[in-house]
Design brief:
single chain; alpha/beta; Metallo-beta-lactamase, Chain A; 7-stranded mixed sheet; 4-stranded mixed sheet; about 15% strand; RibonucZ/Hydroxyglut_hydro; Metallo-beta-lactamase domain-containing protein; Sec-metab_biosynth-thioest
Length: about 350
């Protein structure tokens, strides 16, 4: 959602091709229809027991065709896939995991914190309350009735329930290789990076991207029992400890120094927090989450953001507000919608 001040170097999907990236790893671009990110890079890691996929792409016929044909072009059959490790539950990463499992009998693995969310989303959809839940969250953030109506439309179905639960430090079932789970919460509660120790490279999912910064939000927006941005910034510092190893992200392009980029993103968010603190200090009246989001800087003006992106912006504003609240810089009112003001 937010930019780090550099134009993205990702190429259009039509220019992408499956690629041997060395060390027994291939990347397969899988399109995300109608999304400005364009595509997800699905990685296939070779092993004597069959390939393991890192992420699976969006659940769409065009994406399935791209995944299966892309694997075939590098000599792999989707029927031979051993497993799918999902870096996080978001639909552009988890969407096709269930279809891969149906075609191959592969297991699906995800961090336990995101599995809990998948279960919750599936229960909400089963009960038929998902639109009411979303609408209530938007209202409490300060969105008007028109924005609420647009914001609850066309939500993707929740992903397949994984078979395997991962925790920090777990090794993936990848015969002959060492692929270790590193828990990096922030972009989602259970986001993971994966350190391929036998070649010293890091699959970063959405945690560290070369040019843009991943969306960090709170859902529902007014939660006061979590601090995803604080978690994210702690996770960034953990990644910097790995040193200048190559990063294989799920979007954009591979890059050589994950440590330096993680430190740069950490600085970006500290600067954003300072800007937000200044905004609230200069505003005499308490602001709703929606009002804060409308006054923050995004990759395009607020009035040009479509409803889905306004909702994401509100989630990201809420995450920054929550971190300032945890730091005891601001406080929330007891109103509904909730409002924030500089700590007295």
């Amino acid at each position: 959602m937010s930019e780090s001040g550099v134009r993205s170097r990702r190429r259009a999907y039509i220019e992408q091709r499956p690629m041997d990236v060395g060390g027994g790893v291939w990347s397969v671009p899988v399109p995300i229809p109608g999304n400005p990110l364009g595509y997800t890079l699905v990685y296939a890691v070779e092993s004597p027991g069959g390939p393991v996929l890192i992420d699976a792409g969006w659940n769409h016929p065009d994406a399935w065709l791209a995944l299966t044909e892309g694997l075939a072009s590098v000599g792999m059959d989707v029927a031979d896939v051993r497993g799918v490790v999902v870096t996080h539950y978001h639909p552009d990463h988890s969407g096709l995991a269930g279809q891969v499992r149906e075609s191959s009998g592969a297991w699906i693995a995800m961090h336990e914190a995101d599995i809990a969310l998948v279960r919750l989303f599936r229960d909400v959809v089963k009960d038929g309350n998902h639109k009411d839940f979303q609408a209530d969250m938007l209202r409490r953030a300060g969105a008007d009735s028109h924005e609420v109506a647009e914001g609850v439309a066309n939500r993707p179905e929740p992903p397949a329930l994984p078979d395997l639960s991962l925790s920090d430090g777990d090794l993936i079932d990848l015969p002959g290789r060492r692929l270790r789970t590193i828990w990096t919460p922030g972009h989602s509660p259970g986001h993971i990076c994966l350190h391929l120790e036998d070649t010293d490279r890091l699959f970063t999912g959405d945690h560290v991207l070369p040019d843009i910064t991943p969306h960090i939000g709170i859902y529902p927006y007014d939660r006061n029992d979590v601090d995803p941005l604080g978690d994210f910034m702690t996770s960034l510092l953990r990644v910097t400890e790995l040193g200048p190893i190559e990063a294989l992200p799920a979007h954009e392009i591979r890059f050589p120094d994950v440590s330096a980029r993680a430190a740069e993103i950490h600085t970006h968010h500290e600067e954003k927090l300072q800007s937000l603190q200044t905004l609230l200090a200069e505003t005499p009246e308490p602001l709703t989450i929606w009002e804060v989001a409308a006054r923050m800087t995004w990759n395009r003006p607020w009035d040009q953001l479509p409803p889905m992106l306004r909702g994401m912006a509100a989630g990201e504003a809420a995450a920054h507000l929550r971190t300032l609240e945890v730091r005891d810089v601001i406080e929330r009112t007891a109103d509904e919608p909730v409002r924030f003001v500089i700590h007295s």
